[in-house]
Amino acid sequence: MCPPCERSRMSRVSAGSSRRRDSSSLRPATTESGARSGMGSRTSSGGSNRAAASGLGEGLIFAMRAEQLERGGTIEGRISSGSMAPLLEPGDRVVVRGLSGRRPAAGDLVLFRSEAGATIHRVIGWRRVGGRRLLLERGDANPRAAYLEPSACLGRVVAIEKDGARLSVDGPAGRVCRWIWAAASWPGAHLLAPGATPPAKAAELYLRAYRWLSSLLTRLWRAASPAWRQGRP
What we know:
The chain has helices at 58-70, 172-191, 200-223; strands spanning 26-28, 74-79, 93-98, 109-114, 117-129, 132-138, 146-148, 153-162, 165-168. The chain has 233 residues and is an alpha+beta fold. The protein has one domain (26-223): Umud Fragment, subunit A (Ribbon), CATH 2.10.109. Strands 1, 2, 3, 4, 5, 6, 7, 8 and 9 form a nine-stranded antiparallel β-sheet that branches. β4 (109-114) and β5 (117-129) form a beta hairpin. α2 (172-191) runs antiparallel to α3. Mean pLDDT is 77; it is low at 1-21, 29-57 and 228-233.
């Protein structure tokens, strides 16, 4: 969906460009004949949301798709890294919708600009830093959180295709899981924030409990979700 963004680390806040230890990145979906049912989301004008990979540089593809999200459209792609595991793993497919003025909330999975292209992480809170209101984000599998300029956010994940199941983020099961993830992220917003120096044992116990909860929620959400489509790759 977007160019890979692997193993960079945020050391300071910058508008739309952040260093991070690890990130869930997206690979562009290639053009196909006709839009797919369900995951084949379209732009507001009705055209297919997929940018042709052939003959276009990855930077240009990303710019085109970012502009589409800024217009309130939707895009689709596959995850290519594991910082959001176990919920998002390499090969999983996601649909991202433009924010259209919506403020990201704790628990949301947001797509944002990074040095290498685009990244999907979870919002775990908001913080005021140096007079600026910043998002605090973290990959579920990452040991630290990072600050993010709100202007760097392009959209939020609204659907996930995982192991043949459709996980609707805004459906009943998705809303419950998102609320639980948001509540579970609250301690992490304090223990794992940039500059925080919690006792090593406290951070370790929190991360272990959070990983267990994430694994449980992922399994329950998948079990409560209908099959996406028979025979989909």
